[in-house]
Design goal:
Elements: H1 6-10, E1 16-21, E2 26-31, E3 47-51, E4 54-56, E5 69-76, H2 80-83, E6 90-96
């Protein structure tokens, strides 16, 4: 499918999208067309990105190599009951592959 990282993956998720503004070096994850423009360190996104149930303050996890990911759970709508604040429009939950120690 040509998916190498989280940016590529988001283009295949219905309702999710990315606004990438290279002139100000910021990326905004959008869900159903809604997202917080995060060019300020003080602003939190309305779409949360989570990796292995750990909340990330920024959406830089979209650079995560997809080969390290077991699955991605895309949740639409408010998810405050499960993940707390900053989930008013939804979230992406990355679950990484477990380490395999072979002899």
């Amino acid at each position: 499918m040509g998916i190498d990282n989280g940016f590529d993956l988001v283009t295949y998720l219905p309702g999710f999208g990315i606004d990438d503004s290279s002139e100000i070096r910021t990326t905004t994850l959008k869900n159903r067309g809604i997202g917080t423009f995060t060019n300020s360190i003080g602003l939190q996104s309305s779409n949360l990105v989570v990796i292995d149930s750990e909340v990330l303050p920024r959406q830089s996890i979209l650079n995560l190599p997809i080969s390290d990911v077991q699955r991605v759970e895309a949740m639409r709508g408010p998810q405050g009951t499960f993940f707390g604040q900053n989930t008013s429009t939804g979230l992406l939950h990355y679950v990484t592959k477990k380490l395999q120690l072979d002899d």
